[in-house]
Amino acid sequence: LIDMKNYIYTLLLLLCSFSFTHAQTAEDKKYVSMAVTDILKGFQTKNSDGMNKYVNKDYGVGILFKSGGDLGFVLNEDIDFGMPLGYIQKAWNIRNEFPMQLGDATGEYDLKNKKWKKEGLFVQFNSNAVNAYADQFLEQYGVKDQEIFKISSNAKNVVFVTLAENTREKATVNGFRFVMTKIEGQWFLTFIDVTEYDAE
Fold it and tell me: For the stretch 84-93, what's the b/e string if a residue is b when 16 or more beta carbons lie within 10 angstroms of its beta carbon?
């Protein structure tokens, strides 16, 4: 009876660990690593085509920004550096020199001092970032009802990427955050977070 209990306990542990790592297969890690590299390169060179190949045509890409201290959101069909993307500006300058770190760490931005507390390129699987964003909006905005938020509400299908790098020039914003979501078995760029730069 004791052996049977141990067997069931071990089986449950294995099942739980499998479900926890479900989104982190070797294939997922390989694809996401390649996509992160492509997306950052596209942003660095202002090549929208390089980024748009990861944008789902049905859901588009959401831009999260701050204006006057409040969180804002705009949904775009795709990425076009010739049009306003929330508060992404052509002046945005990333070096993208850090090795990719897969794990639980994320870059934390110090709003008061306008700099990242720790620099690096952090790729976090099983991220609850989208739900955390959605919780910041007042209910009357209905953000949680929008399809792009709904499709990204399951943390096991979400990867949160932070390129945390501090600016070397004055009045230039550095660093870049975005979210990838697994939709019907494929990873897409679903959100870009430019909240470290407050437009007002």
Answer: ebbbbeeebe
Tens digits of residue pLDDT in 93-102? 888 899 999 9
Do the strands 120-124 and 100-102 form a parallel or antiparallel pair, or are they unpaired? parallel
The whole-angstrom separation of Cα 133 and Cα 118 is 22
CA distance 150 to 58: 13
* Interstrand relation of 115-116 and 109-110 (parallel, antiparallel or unpaired): antiparallel
Summarize pLDDT for 142-154 with one digit per residue, the tens.
888 999 999 999 9
Edge-to-edge strand ranges of the sheet holding 176-183: 70-76, 61-67, 186-198, 176-183, 158-164, 120-124, 100-102
Question: Which is it for strands 61-67 and 186-198: parallel, antiparallel or unpaired?
Answer: parallel
Question: What is the biggest distance separating any 2 CA atoms in the chain, rounded to whole angstroms?
Answer: 69
Angle 32-36-37 from CA coordinates, rounded to 5°: 120
**C-beta of residue 108 within 8 angstroms of C-beta of residue 118:** yes
Q: How many CB atoms lie within 10 A of CB 114?
A: 13
